Amino acid sequence: MTIATLALATAALKLAGPLALGGRPLSPKALNVVELLASALLAALVVVETLGKGRSLTLDARVLGVAFAAIALSRRAPMIVVVVGAAAVTAVARLLS
Amino acid sequence: MFAISISFGVLARPLMGPVAPIVMSIVVFSGSAQFGALAVLIAGGSAGAAIAAGVLLNARYLAMGLALAPSLRGRAPSRAAFAMPTVDASWASASRGDGTFDPWYLVGVSAPQYVGWVLGTVIGVLIGPALGDPNALGLDTLFPAFFLALLYAEARGRRRVAAAGGGAGIALALTPIVPAGLPILAAAAAAVVASRMRP
């Protein structure tokens, strides 16, 4: 159910623009919001996945991994280095603690 | 992308079983939506919250599709066939820089990514159980690192940075108060507020 709904919704989002035959495009106001949604949600996911533990916030080895990811990104490291390195840093920190 | 899809398979299997993650990669084919929905489910959020998070994360495709539309010719089925394979990387690299897009280039970039994405998920599902505890390997940090990488590419310009800062603040403030998944959704409000700023 979850998967089917997500697949259909993703397809609908991709196709809406190109198939809107002569239909009025989204108002500039709405487009403005759509354009910013990904930034807002991605940032929310970053902090919740880094600090969240159920319904509480906590500082643990994930923070070190994400800090590594941030540094790697600022040095223009490729995606694979960023994510695998982050996991490795967290794993080593857990091993040592 | 390949490594990302392997880790998706590894992380999704304990929750979804062996088949569902592969089906999801085949039919959804969107890293951010799949990881976003999975993150909500792992945190104990409802299916509805997971779907909503995935859909909102993919709302950018609406904007990308609208930008792409004038570059697509022909009848509706052919335009749909070119629009459907859109992913972030292919959309960005098919842009000619003057507001138009090269549709064949878009399909050409997407096709190998699709194969790699599905194949990686299969590998992840297969090797997952052999890896033992995913957290001991730091695999739970793959989520935030992956989202941070997407955010880093996405959040250019004042308004996007403001939306990101606001979204993070909302999510942090609400995490102790409301059920899992909802803080992520509520972060969408930051996009509405930031859209009123001057670019």
Question: What does this protein structure show overall?
Answer:
The complex is a heterodimer of chains A (97) and B (199). Chain A has a two-stranded antiparallel sheet with strand order 1-2. In chain A, strand 1 (52-53) and strand 2 form a beta hairpin. Chain A is mostly helical and 97 residues long. Chain A has two domains: 1-57, no CATH class; 59-97, no CATH class. Chain A has four helices and two strands; from the N terminus they run ααββαα. In chain A, helix 3 packs antiparallel against helix 4 (79-96). The relative contact order of chain B is 0.16. The radius of gyration of chain B is 18 Å and the shape is globular. Chain B has helices at 2-16, 19-27, 31-42, 47-57, 60-68, 76-83, 88-94, 103-131, 142-154, 158-174, 182-186, 188-194. Chain B is mainly α. Chains A and B meet through helix 1, helix 2, strand 2, helix 3 and helix 4 of A and helix 1, helix 2, helix 3, helix 4 and helix 5 of B.
Give the gist of this structure:
The complex is a heterodimer of chains A (97) and B (199). With 97 residues, chain A is mostly helical.
Properties at a glance:
heterodimer, A: 97 residues, mainly alpha, 2 domains, two-stranded antiparallel sheet, 4 helices, 2 strands, 4% strand, elongated, B: 199 residues, 12 helices, 71% helix, globular
Tally of DSSP β-strands of chain B: 0
The greatest inter-chain interface is formed by: A-B, 72 and 95 residues
Spatial arrangement of strands, main beta sheet of chain A: 1-2
How can the largest sheet of chain A be summarized?
A: 2 strands, antiparallel
The major sheet of chain B is characterized as: none
End-to-end gap of chain B: 31 Å
The level of helicity of chain A is over 70%
Total helical segments of chain B: 12
Uncertain stretches of 5 or more adjacent residues of chain A: none
How many individual domains of chain A?
Answer: 2
Range of strand content of chain B: under 5%
Q: On the 0-100 scale, what is the average pLDDT of chain A? A: 84
